[in-house]
Protein 1
Amino acid sequence: MALVLAPFLMVMLEPVAVVPTVVLVSAANTLLVALRSRRLLKWRLLLPLSVGGIAGFSVGIHVLQLLNQDLARVCVGLLVLFFTVVLWSGWRYPLPETPWTLTPVGMASGFTGGVTSIGGPPVALFLANQNTPRDVFRANLVCYFFIISCYGIMRLTLNGILSGAVARYAGALVPATVLGTLAGLYVGVRIPETAFKRAVFGLLLIVGGVLVYNGLR
């Protein structure tokens, strides 16, 4: 969700406002999916990822406050382009699922989430790399996002980044997000996955390119 939402918001808002907006909206989105998928959780996978994610997010929001906003746009654009190409390519290199591999993956995901609001790709790449079954993949990925979103709301509030204006942005987005999530749960198993991925990845390449161009300009 963040990979699609964040680049569009960054065309209209400052990156420092985009991160808390996406975190708030993500909490609503992931809660709905997590409740539906809770029976498929693998705690030995989820816990190390979440511990790493919390640590990485804490560092990421400090970097966010120091970054020049145009530089942040360029970073997000490049991140979107890179992860889109890697995910689309289908590249795989399976790794052992131990705390020594899972925790750093969670940290990388949390850090990119704190800096850019796009924390999903590192964890998604890892699970895809492991050839994790689709339903198990979704359940653990979404529960990881929910945990990080809840922690993120707390930290962003304490750091003074989550303002009234941000809450209004998120409030305007949440109803549509809930409807989109429910629709996605219904049609997700009914549409061709390959065609859907091509459409989304093609759109992300365009948006990532626009962000890099705007940031450099």
Note: The first helix runs from residue 2 to 12.
Protein 2
Amino acid sequence: MKALIVDDNNINLKVASKMLEKEGLQVDTVLSGKECLEKVKNSNYDIIFMDIMMPEMDGKETFSKLQEIEGFNTPVVTLTADTEESKEEYLTKYHFNGYLSKPLRIEELKKVLNKIKTP
């Protein structure tokens, strides 16, 4: 599986990358929503992990723009430390395919990966 991680924090990118690589995924990383859109136009991913709180273009806006790309159907999992909105809001209101809170925990990551692999 090939994953893209979108987060404006290099430390978060490194931590998430290491966790996903240990689970056997090939990982690319980008620091912004704009970079994410460019990567997705030029590469195919099996899953995208998207930070919600980013400058310029947040994760919700980036996800919305991804959905405008013809043929886009890659599962997108939100990464957030934001407690203002509930997990259910991210999954039902914004239509993310999964939800992980920060700091990431390997058990939760494995659950999301298993769900995405076997819908």
Note: Strands lie at 2-6, 26-30, 47-51, 76-80, 98-101.
Protein 3
Amino acid sequence: MERPVTTIIEELLSVMGYTEASVSMMSDETGVVYAIHTNDGRQLIGRDGANLAALNHIVKRIVEQETGTYGRFGIDVNGYQEERNESLRRQARMIVDRVRSLAADSELEPMDGYARMIIHAAIADMADVTTESVGRGHERHIVVKYSPEKRSDMSF
């Protein structure tokens, strides 16, 4: 019998000592998000979101084991992930402004796959710029490319 993802998260949180935490399901541009609300989420989030990434991984593996399918969802704690996403979108807009003003490509620092997905999505519909992920492993990063020919292809 499959347990709902919310139940899996609540059970894990209880074992970890987070008895006052609540979990709700919502959706954003990345898909389904399970939002954890707790009085103190610092340890759940960890440094630079490392513990949150690990929690995401563990819950997805449990779901995969129970259902046989890969879990296509994310977990957020006290809005941390949404704030990070907004910061990434701001970074994308600043990079695009720089690429346009210099009419030259710009390479971003290496980042995880989720962060790259947010950057790619933020830039996807912008005229005269494109993105590409390059590199391998921990060195994988985004190159924002100046593409004036993309502007002429846009229908207004």
Note: Confidence is low (pLDDT under 50) at residues 152-156.
